[in-house]
Amino acid sequence: MADEKIEIKHNHEKIINNITEACKLSGRAPQEVTLTAVSKTKPIELLKEAYACGCREFGENKVQELMDKIPQMPEDVKWHMIGHLQTNKVKYLIGKVELIHSVDSVKLAKVISKESMKHNVITNILVEINVAGEESKFGTSDMDANLELIKEIKQLPGIKLKGLMTIAPFTESGEDNRIYFRTLKQFAKKHSDLFDGDIILSMGMSGDYEVAIQEGATMIRVGTNLFGARNYTI
Ligand SMILES: *Cc1c(COP(=O)(O)O)cnc(C)c1O
Questions:
Q1: CA 112 to ligand 1 centroid distance, Å
Q2: What pTM value is reported for the model?
Q3: Which ligand 1 atom sits nearest the alpha carbon of residue 226?
Q4: How far apart are CA 184 and CA 174, in angstroms?
Q5: What is the pLDDT of residue 33?
Q6: Ligand 1 neighbours by CB, cut-off 6 Å
Q7: Cys-Cys link to 213, which of 22, 79, 86, 181 (CB 3.0-4.6 A)?
Q8: How far is residue 36's CA from residue 219's CA, in Å, rounded to a whole number?
Q9: What is the pLDDT of residue 231?
Q10: What is the 3-state secondary structure (H, E, C) of the chain?
Q11: Averaged in consecutive runs of 10 residues, what is the pLDDT profile of the chain (234 residues)?
């Protein structure tokens, strides 16, 4: 069996090198890009290995799993909710997460707003945009509709709209997704007045994060390339 300790360290170094390289290619500073370690389905020991490598931002896609993991990790970890979120689960996340990446409706945003107000906190959110218009994914590719969605969400108290997130199609070559990343960046730039502070662009996963960085990603979400393939059967 492979030694996972060495493997995660090795994987992490490789990702950091690739981030640096992608930044160099596009004239950006590596500090502009935050690596979110996507640890869904992975046991806490592996998250601790990633932590030991310097990872402080972790992404999960299920509320229950996130809640289970939070108390098992050091307090300086910043947690990211990256998966589809049901309104009835919002209450568990409030005050616990750094950023909710997956806000895809006014209805969801309203619940986040209401719960945040109730707990007297501000919740940072991203609006999820389905740039490629894939039916299997949440959000829409209709940019006029997205603009309306963003404008409506932005009005709500108790939340800060920090930027946009997209999940590009699964593809053999990350290059295929360049157009989607570019589209999202251009849209964000055009409407930069709608966002709170420096715009966060959460885009790029294991298969395409280098391309996403070249196109302006400020946050990448990497699971497989850091922790290895996920096993959903166990
Ligand atoms: C699982 C997941 C990722 C990580 O995907 P990898 O291809 O394993 O890097 C990123 N973003 C979201 C929203 C995910 O659900």
A1: 23
A2: 0.96
A3: 9
A4: 15
A5: 98
A6: 38, 40, 61, 82-83, 167, 205-207, 221-225
A7: 22
A8: 7
A9: 84
A10: CCCHHHHHHHHHHHHHHHHHHHHHHCCCCHHHCEEEEECCCCCHHHHHHHHHCCCCEEEECCHHHHHHHHHHCCCCCEEEECCCCCHHHHHHHCCCCCEEEEECCHHHHHHHHHHHHHCCCCEEEEEECCCCCCCCCCCCCCHHHHHHHHHHHHCCCCEEEEEEECCCCCCCCHHHHHHHHHHHHHHHHHCHHHCCCCCEEECCCCCCHHHHHHCCCCEEEECHHHHCCCCCCC
A11: 74 98 97 98 97 98 98 98 98 98 97 98 98 91 95 98 97 95 98 96 98 98 96 70
Residue pointed to by tokens 């930044």: 23
Q: Which two tokens stand for residue 221?
A: 């979400």
Question: How long a stretch of residues is the chain?
Answer: 234
pLDDT score recorded for residue 233: 65
Six token digits for residue 213: 């960085």
Q: Which residues contact 101 (CB under 8 A, 6 or more apart)?
A: 59, 80, 81, 82, 125, 126, 128, 165, 202, 221
Interval between CA 223 and ligand 1 midpoint (Å):
6
